[in-house]
Amino acid sequence: MLSRQYLRENPDEVRQNLADRGMADDVDLDRLLDIDEEWRSLKSEGDDLRHERNQVSDRIGQLKADGKDEEAEEAIERSQELKERLEEVETRADELEAELEAGLMEIPNVPHEDVPVGEDESDNVEDRRHGFDDLRDLPETVTPHYDLGEDLDIIDEERGAKTTGAGFYFLKGEGARLEHALIQFMMDVHREQGYVDLFPPVPVKSSSMEGTGQLPKFANDAYRIGGEETTEYDDDDLWLCPTAEVPVTNMYADDILLSDDLPLKHQAYTPNFRREAGEHGTETRGIVRVHQFNKVELVNFVDPEESYDRLEGLVDEAEEVLRRLGLPYRILSLCTGDLTFASAKTYDIEVWAPGTDGDDAPEQGGRWLEVSSASNFEDFQSRRAGLRYRPERHESAEYLHTLNASGTAVGRVMVAILEYYQNEDGTVTVPEALRPYMGGLEVIEGHEKVGESALGSGDRD
Predict the structure, then answer these.
(1) What is this enzyme's EC (predicted)?
(2) Is there a binding annotation on residue 285?
């Protein structure tokens, strides 16, 4: 969250930030500034009242000792008046402070000065592409991953919908092996880069969701345990993890780290759960936009002076996964209108999936799939979660900077592999980097379907 001082001293910048993000009507900034002004006035009055009350209390004893009972009684009455007024002032100040804190929670982070201004994803800026100079030979017609997955019987959306609902799916046989292989491969890559493994809890408290910026604004996208996501919640209510960023970032909430601890780099694999209640929703077919997906998350805690250098390094660390897999991709700088609520600057990494044509695709066709967003949140999350460090052991604690990136979204990387590495005969070549994780398997050939439903497919005699 933004500090009160920043809001107080930079109202025009905050107002412009809201406009650049398309949120000008979402926050009553003038109301918050009025609340802050009244709160500061009451705090000042409260200090004056306490000072006067202390002075009066000191006089009462002296007046009684001097035998000035009438004046002492007047002083007692004045002390009671001051007490009653102080209670009124403190009660009102507490109400205003709660309202101010709630209002600050609704204000997004201020973008870094070099973030391009734009309304939505169409205004994002492409920085570079990788892997398009030496593409492998593809089939004349690339089969979309959902049809290929069904043909090979490695993706079963129908039975996933039957057991849980739309937007859930089964991976089977070589599909499941591929998913497991990707997870372990990614974690090995990032371990080489100096990341410390974590296996965090999957349920997270409301306070943790607030700490990283998922609540209160994005409650509709989250799965709440034991309650409706839209009803009022308490700090200790539990939610299914939408990203490992939430538990990993909050594991140091209200702690004070030392300068020697930084940069602190953690990686964590978790299943993630999102309702996808926004404008995109879930796609009709396939595993690109679903309610449950696997991801390896990279979370960094850094000295503020080093956070933007670390952001560039974080992008490179996430890219390494795609480079080793031989998948073509591109890097985007997100504009103000496409930044996440908590981010000050974000790079998106989008892998090329050639099986289904989409908007803004390369000349080769297909579509881009976002597999990682590498973001610098500066001290925005730290203020919400209480993440501090001590630059020197004798110095006061300061807010550190947090960054994170997916390293990467496993399901979407699988989509890219199934489409980019498919062959004319309908099989899929396993990328060399993954073969040691799949027992040396070089080609995914699929297997026969089971049950009476397979009889009509021509798979059985």
Answers:
(1) 6.1.1.11
(2) no
Cα dist. 246→1, 57, 380 in Å?
Answer: 15, 50, 14
Report the pLDDT value the prediction gives residue 460, as an integer from 0 to 100.
Answer: 53
Residues 66 and 90 in one domain: yes
Q: How many whole angstroms separate alpha carbon 361 and alpha carbon 200?
A: 37
Asked if residue 196 belongs to a known ligand binding site, the reply is no
Mean pLDDT of all residues belonging to the chain:
93
What domain range is 292 assigned to?
Answer: 121-452
pLDDT at 239: 95
The residue whose two tokens read 């039957």 is 162
Among the listed ranges 77-81, 186-190, 372-376, which one has the minimum average pLDDT value?
77-81
Indicate the range of 279-288, 394-403, 407-416, 433-442 predicted with least confidence.
279-288
Could you tell me if residue 461 is inside a domain?
Answer: no
Give the torsion sign (CA, 331, 334, 339, 342).
positive
Give the per-residue pLDDT at 420: 98
Distance between CA atoms of residues 288 and 102, nearest Å:
35
Rounded to two decimals, the pTM is: 0.90
Instruction: Answer whether residue 114 is part of any domain.
Output: no
Once rounded to an integer, what is the mean pLDDT over residues 375-398?
Answer: 95
User: Does residue 136 sit in helix, strand or coil?
Assistant: coil
The rounded distance, in Å, linking the Cα atoms of 17 and 336 is: 8
pLDDT score at 210 = 94
Is residue 459 in some structural domain? no
Residue 57, annotated as binding a ligand: no
Residue whose C-alpha is closest to residue 209's, from 233, 179, 185:
233
Tell me, what CATH number does 358's domain have?
3.30.930.10
Q: Is 51 known as a binding-site position?
A: no
Which residues form the catalytic set?
A: 274, 289, 370, 373, 412
Report whether 292 belongs to an annotated binding site: yes
Q: What three-state secondary structure class fits 69?
A: helix
Task: To the nearest 10°, report the CA torsion of 286, 291, 297, 299.
Answer: 140
Q: By percentage, how much of the chain surpasses pLDDT 70?
A: 97
**HSE of 328, CA atoms in CB hemisphere, 13 A:** 20
Pair 333, 304 in one domain = yes
pLDDT at 203 over 90: yes
Cite the DSSP H helix spans in 24-156. 29-65, 69-104, 145-152
Residue 115, CA atoms < 13 Å, CB-side half-sphere: 29
The pLDDT value recorded for residue 326 is 98
Give the CATH number, domain containing residue 19. 1.10.287.40
> Alpha helix locations (H) across 251-344?
307-325
